[in-house]
Write the structure tokens for this entry.
Amino acid sequence: MAKDKKVEQITDMEVDFAQWFTDICTKAELVDYSGVKGLFILRPYGYAIWENIQAVLDRKFKELGHTNVSMPVLIPESLLQKEKDHVQGFAPECAWVTVGGSEELPERLCIRPTSETLFCDHWSHIIHSWRDLPCLYNQWCSVLRWEKTTRPFLRGREFLWQEGHTLHATEEEARKETLQMLEVYAELCEEYLAMPVLRGNKTDKEKFAGAVNTYTIECMMHDHKALQSGTSHYFGDGFAQAFGIQFSDKENKLRYPHQTSWGLSTRTIGGLIMTHGDNSGLVVPPRIAPLQVIVLPIAAHRPGVTEKAEEIVARLQAAGVRVKGDFSDNSPGWKFANWEMKGVPVRLEIGPKDMEAGKCVAVSRCDGSKTDIPLDALETRIPELLEEVQKSLFERAKRNLEENTFSAQTVDEVRQIVEGSGGFIKTMWCGDEACELKMKELAGVTSRCIPFEQEIVGDVCPVCGRPAKTMVVWGQAY
Amino acid sequence: MAKDKKVEQITDMEVDFAQWFTDICTKAELVDYSGVKGLFILRPYGYAIWENIQAVLDRKFKELGHTNVSMPVLIPESLLQKEKDHVQGFAPECAWVTVGGSEELPERLCIRPTSETLFCDHWSHIIHSWRDLPCLYNQWCSVLRWEKTTRPFLRGREFLWQEGHTLHATEEEARKETLQMLEVYAELCEEYLAMPVLRGNKTDKEKFAGAVNTYTIECMMHDHKALQSGTSHYFGDGFAQAFGIQFSDKENKLRYPHQTSWGLSTRTIGGLIMTHGDNSGLVVPPRIAPLQVIVLPIAAHRPGVTEKAEEIVARLQAAGVRVKGDFSDNSPGWKFANWEMKGVPVRLEIGPKDMEAGKCVAVSRCDGSKTDIPLDALETRIPELLEEVQKSLFERAKRNLEENTFSAQTVDEVRQIVEGSGGFIKTMWCGDEACELKMKELAGVTSRCIPFEQEIVGDVCPVCGRPAKTMVVWGQAY
């Protein structure tokens, strides 16, 4: 039967981590594959998680003075080419429209891989005076990057994201914005997605095409690999010069403004899966969960059970909890497995014996622990329990991050860690890109970031032996 | 000075209606032109109106059990071709991706002009049993149609919209959904956008490519032309058959489900402009306005005026009004013109004399009428006034619709009305497409709809003289 297929066993993560991930994506009904490789369908449950992420970010953006806009989906090739580093970074992975209606186009148009060039072109029309600054824009949309290998959430040829683009009168203000928006992403990850982050600066090699600085938040997955979960870029006035964006300052002098951009995508849902999921399926932190509580009547045929379950649903709904009851004719076993697969943070069971005792049983999706909840304390105890689950998930993820972060003095030590359990590896670094490349070649890791919180874990660069400038964190990454 | 340019005089609508419209689009800062013809930038103020429309619809959709999903932006040519009528309707105006990365694609992909084929392909994977129905989906996105002539909001090669797609076990249920969603659009238009609508059925000639029935709401613009503002389609099981979507019913028999789709786009913002705007600029109905009240201090240099204005802003904000104060150093004349251009429904003026009298002056953007508002009654009187403005706008638009709706007995009468003031013209009709085409040829009008509320305005078809079957409303349309 179709309905039983849905909750068939998924691959254990210890057996095949990649397959475990894909199994959750499809069996928790987050995505479906479309007819085009790398273009995924976000199904209702997957999209609802994205909507909750959107709601958190959109509110924070607006509180900080940003407004949403909508830019075209297509970029003329000549526009993409205006900033040299940028076009080199993105042109090789663009999808190109060459025919419109029945006619060959005079110039080919790419589907936006990112929209810096569109924002800059627009700004060159509308920015005239210091009164027009700062310009604090954001856009919710999808972008296309024609990747060779693709995976749901982690590497799609199309993915949903938001891209913030801002323009400021001074470097100081723009740099402040860049860091502020990284902090917004860090808050989303830590406080809502229960994913602890490592904040830092990307090396020149790893930064965004055309940026002066790229800041990143890096999260650690179950397999100890890193997921870059959000980035924020400071551009200086390079794009402004390339696009001829100038403003007259208060002394009526023409100047180039300073620019930032920052983006966070549906990739974070992939991060959520690989941070909290287990061999029974997805686990969604309560604050971001489309459904926080599922109520299951036990022995529903017995008098009053269904009515009591319905009453519990109604009371929790009235208390602001995102809750549903499963009154289908599926077996209890099927229901348990199905809602575990979906990662609903709390399952509430109510049966005849519970009713007699004036209680119900709450089961945490974090650790399976059971708690008796007196029925007359539902409205206070369930929100408390949801907060406890939220906290437990964060703490478990934090332990994973801390226990799998190491320091190393030599390239050999780095390689041994990578070949062992993997993880984040701190070393000193001379700052030379040649050493960064050598580390990748010899130990199979890339630089994840130069953490804002620096430590002195040695004196010299483990690759060249020269005096070290900064501490870098290395890792294998998605 | 740049800031004065923004409020330079716009073209009078009586002089050049099309130019008046375009002037409002750019001078009220709703849109900017991009480097690609027909692809427009929605600026913060224009996008904020769209966000308010989205919020109303998204809430209504969800209350009615719909969930949002995200489909790919690209459709393989072979998928588009699966339903014959559909591909004939859309293929000629598609934009085609032929190159991905640096490689020619084996099959060209079009940017979605609408997503029926994508939803059907997905449904063919996930629909198995009656338990999987109904499937009530919606998507917020942009679509592309490679039009020859383009205008902001009214005819873009790219436009933002929502497209609802649903699948039902029975024809009855699907037909009910089709009409229900048309009613949701009608409510949005009448209750929020203050645009009275004419509801009806499209003729076969005017219906959506592949639909059995298309229902429409038609609004009348200042120039007495019609704007099709939202459509809802019943597809029968034609797509389901073409895409092999089947479900086993409760008797375990395989059946084809019945399908609907319905869409409303940023076109409605064009309708808003041409329904309420005047020669001073945009007029936005309060319930949908990004900014409902603008507070202007008069003689702001006089002691206490700015402080009082700030206090008014704070009090109204706390009362849930979308309000801002203009404390810039621009002249009062510039401020008046600027906020009139933006169509903010109520302007509140507060000066030294008003303060002495314990009042402020509210000016309605609908008719310029002034009302003294006692300062101690702000929180009740301003929301009341906003509702009055909302109502006045609707009533004015309703008068325009009623006063410019006519009945005609002959093709000559229809032509005379079209050549005079224009408007909606009711005639009887035999139901023959040849007569519909002839009416267009002879009188320059298309059938807008077969209204749900039928009247008997004659006995025979004015074109062929044969007995009439239904009443049709004709008009010139955007």
Remarks:
- Chain B touches chain A through 59 residues (CB under 8 Å).
- Residues 378-403 of chain B form the longest helix (26 residues).
